[in-house]
Automatic annotation (TrEMBL):
<dbReference type="InterPro" id="IPR029058">
    <property type="entry name" value="AB_hydrolase_fold"/>
</dbReference>
<dbReference type="InterPro" id="IPR053228">
    <property type="entry name" value="Stereospecific_Lipase"/>
</dbReference>
<protein>
    <recommendedName>
        <fullName>Lipase</fullName>
    </recommendedName>
</protein>
<feature type="signal peptide">
    <location>
        <begin position="1"/>
        <end position="22"/>
    </location>
</feature>
<keyword id="KW-0732">Signal</keyword>
Length: 458
């Protein structure tokens, strides 16, 4: 059966490519069915009623989320009242993903319409890792584009099938340039960007938006996740005969940076790298650092994103903490997942020792006391008006996004990007519910950080 956007298969694979469902009626590893009756509520409910040993804490949170989602109604709030609710929820302290999701559910910050969309995320073609992207004899990018590149460990067919190309994609025609969206931890790319940057073409008509559905919802080894990014850069650039721009969220920033570092041939075809809430230096938030974090939540990539892990030390060394292409970072003090996100030691900051052009944009410093400089969470940057203005500026100019080219009065005085609506705020925060579902089903959890790839040790 062929789905819209050239996607085949089932989105369950987006979360558990090499996993089994952690419930009594489990699906054998690597034996995923072509269709599934599982949905967001079912996963959360099963997690609440069938806790595995040691995850009673996560089970209790899942139970609370399900209880709070029962009977929700159509959202009739305004952007202003939603802003006030978000400020009350996230202005104090830092949380882990399940606790943040529980707060979102208990606050009524998800409407019935949004929940209906999120509930079916497993079966949405926009999240498929089985897309029918044709191989081309004219594309010489695998197994190596350049002798300087790291080797791939993933089959080319799988790398290519993870790229979602919408029907609207123009393949470089009409002066358009591809924008490749790279997801963060725990949420498939299609769902991640549905309420925000998948709509970037409405703001910039010359942008051709595509995205990479990294298997395992980016829970697996970040070094392997980066292979999908490196391949996507070359594949999309080649079929479009054009350079590309990259836009990432969260761990996606690390995946792009790792790809640029260890697949240096990618740098010549990437014009811009726009990183939303990146953790280039990991996080020191105790609630998100393994092994301090409950072992039931420790997945390979979550483990790797602690500030002092082997992975973080490896990506930072030899100038890896500095940009390889023009880079725009956008981050918020109130990030509930990555910390610190303020001052000279903010995790999102990237250096510019190569002189390629970098701007590090702290929302609260640029728009102090203004709506756009208010309480924006890890996911909230995805609908922030200044973030959108800077992304637009970066995409439409040479070099990184520059605040002095942006209409700061207009950007700072708004709470929501003008290209978006109230439902986009609600849906973006609803992503946390999908993240909890991903944590419940991803198997196996890990008790140690993955080994550094041999190519990064040379």
């Amino acid at each position: 059966m062929q789905f819209q956007h050239h996607a085949m298969g089932v989105c369950l694979a987006c979360i558990i490519l090499t996993s089994s469902v952690a419930f009594s009626a489990s699906i054998p590893r690597n034996a995923l069915p072509p269709t599934t009756d599982l949905d967001l509520i079912t996963i959360l409910d099963n997690g609440a009623n069938n806790p595995m040993e040691g995850n009673e804490w996560l089970s209790d949170i899942a139970s609370s989320i399900v209880s709070n989602l029962t009977g929700i109604r159509t959202q009739d709030e305004s952007v202003q009242s939603t802003r006030e609710k978000i400020e009350n929820l996230f202005a104090y302290g830092h949380l882990n993903i399940p606790e943040a999701a529980s707060m979102v559910a208990s606050s009524g910050l998800v409407s019935s319409e949004i929940l209906s969309f999120l509930n079916g995320f497993l079966n949405q073609s926009l999240n498929s890792i089985h897309n029918e992207n044709q191989a081309s004899s004219n594309i010489d990018i695998y197994p190596l584009k350049s002798e300087a590149d790291a080797p791939y460990s993933v089959r080319e067919d799988d790398l290519r099938a993870a790229i979602h190309i919408p029907n609207s994609f123009s393949y470089g025609k009409n002066g358009k340039k591809p924008l490749i969206l790279v997801p963060g931890t725990a949420i498939p790319a299609g769902t991640t960007y549905h309420f925000n940057f998948a709509k970037f073409g409405n703001a910039v008509p010359t942008a051709d938006v595509v995205w990479v559905n990294i298997p395992g919802s980016s829970f697996s080894d970040a070094q392997v996740n980066a292979e999908y990014v490196a391949y996507a850069i070359h594949y999309i650039s080649s079929i479009s005969n054009a350079n590309v721009a990259m836009l990432s969220w969260s761990q996606g920033g690390l995946n792009v940076q790792w790809a640029l570092k260890y697949w240096p041939s990618t740098r010549s075809v990437v014009d811009d790298f726009i990183a939303m809430s990146p953790d280039f230096h990991g996080t020191i938030a105790r609630a998100l650092v393994c092994p301090l974090l409950e072992t039931v939540i420790c997945t390979p990539s979550i483990w790797q994103q602690g500030w002092d892990t082997n992975f973080m030390q490896t990506i930072r060394e030899d100038g890896g903490d500095s940009a390889y292409v023009p880079t725009t970072t956008i981050y918020s003090t109130f990030d509930e997942i990555v910390q610190p996100m303020i001052g000279d030691n903010a995790s999102a900051i990237i250096r510019d020792i190569r002189g390629v052009g970098v701007t590090n944009n702290h929302l609260q410093s640029i728009c102090p006391g203004k709506p756009a400089g208010g309480v924006y969470t890890h996911e909230g940057t995805l609908y922030n008006p200044l973030a959108w203005a800077l992304a637009i500026d970066a995409f439409t100019h040479d070099g990184p996004g520059q605040p002095d080219r942006v209409n700061m009065e207009a950007a700072c005085e708004q709470f929501l990007a003008p290209q978006l609506e109230l439902d986009d705020i609600l849906g973006t925060h609803g992503l946390l519910l999908v993240a909890v579902a991903g944590l419940l089903v991803y198997m196996p959890k890990t008790t140690a950080e993955p080994k550094i790839a041999a190519y990064a040790l040379d």
